[in-house]
Amino acid sequence: LDPAVRRRLAAFGCADADELRVGGLPVRALAERFGTPLYLFDHGLLQARAAAVIDALGPDVRVLYSLKANPSLAVTRSLRHAGLGAEVASLGELELALAAGHDPAAVRFAGPGKTDAEIGAALARGLGCFHAESASEVEAIAAAARGAGRRAGVAVRVNSPRAAAGSRLRMAGVGARFGVDGAQVPPLLAAIAQRPELQLRGLHVYAGSQCFDAAAFLAQARDLVRFADECERDLGLALPELDLGGGFGEATFVLDPEFDLAAAGAGVRALVAAHARQGRVFLLELGRYLTAPMGVYLARVVRSKTAGDRVQLALDGGLHHCALAAGIGGMLRRPPLLVHATALRRPATVVTAVGGPLCTPLDQFADSVLLPPCREGDLIAVLAAGAYGLSYSPHGFLSHPTPAEVLVHEGAARIVRARGAPADVLRGQSP
Ligand SMILES: Cc1ncc(COP(=O)(O)O)c(C=O)c1O
User: Is the CB–ligand 1 distance for residue 246 below 6 Å?
Assistant: First the structure.
């Protein structure tokens, strides 16, 4: 077994078991009860990961949950209970954060391309702080604040020149769509500070996602703090909030490494200790690292056949629910963390291709992996599937119903997102 698969199985308490369990419940029974395909979320693992992150980073860092990783109300609520704040990137995510009980004044709204209407609507909902990505966006926020007769909090997202070496998905560097180029930041901060309708909150950096290199993450965090100190000194203004970004990687495909949380935590603690001052707040924002480990995507083998030199499995789920596992958005195609969910200890002897029901070659989790023999009716599980799952997938393609999402908490399983139905395809349409 791949080391990342081994780690995930151990976390589910199945290191020596033959059948995968989620939150202590065997997946065969869960599949019988809720049907397949199915997302399963382990509440205990979600809480454990949140606690590990808070513990590693220390009490002087506020961790925000980036809702884009898993826009589940149950997950968002659970992470709020664990003490995390919220970072949103759309009005829909803002609604979700509020429904999960977040105080709108403490929510951050990030992302390029926020429209004037969205900015106005977010202010009307009481949003506390925009992470602005351009001078033009700052103008739009100011106009909306004047119109609403209130002050809007603004932090500026800095385009890190380091482009997050170490991140698989880069969101910075020369010509990036994200953030404001360093040279343009000081005049923008000065302009914000002069506007009575704006409250300058600080700086934000987010250079990339799936970062497995703690040293690279720390380098860009240090850059931001140094830059903030320079701006404060040169401009004579205060930048009370510094959002150091995040993007900690979580193994999703075979041969993926493990992110060194202890090293990142020690580095952040040292940085914060060296630059702490009265009224200064340090933030970090994470999605995948928090939610990926607790999730499993479970699908049933519908058909099995021999095709050339391998066995071809067609599942009842695939790309349309779990696009990440099919390699969408990745540079290199590698198999996700796949297991035969009721034969974990049986020797993997069969060269197997695993695909879904969609009429596209993209609907393939693996072209050629070794699995124990699989029969029609067996269950295949994708591990580390709790982030960028359903919401990241083209679930409109071929109009299959969306899967149910089930949360297992203290030995009890409940549906937290209802399964779709074939007739959903007609919703909102007229002839
Ligand atoms: C600004 C911002 N913050 C946070 C995240 C969350 O990233 P991850 O899920 O990798 O932690 C993203 C991801 O795209 C992002 O763009």
Answer: yes
Is residue 220 within 6 Å of ligand 1 at its C-beta?
no
pLDDT per position as a tens digit, 87-125: 999 999 999 999 999 999 999 999 999 999 999 999 999
**pLDDT (tens digit, 9 = 90+) per residue, 271-309?**
999 999 888 999 999 999 999 999 999 999 999 999 999
DSSP codes, 299-354: EEEEEEEEETTEEEEEES--TTT-GGGGTTT-SS---BSEEETT-TTS---EEEEE
pTM above 0.70, yes or no: yes
**Helices 116-124 and 91-99 meet at what angle, rounded to 10?**
20
* CA 209 / ligand 1 centre spacing (Å): 6
Of the residues 57, 63, 67, 68, which should be mutated to test ligand 1's pocket, given the most ligand atoms within 8 Å of the CB? 68
Q: What is the CA radius of gyration of the chain?
A: 23
Question: Which atom of ligand 1 is the closest one to the Cα of 388?
Answer: 9
Closest C-alpha to 84, from 110, 65, 109: 65
Q: Which residue type, as a one-letter code, is found at position 231? A: C
211 given a catalytic annotation: no
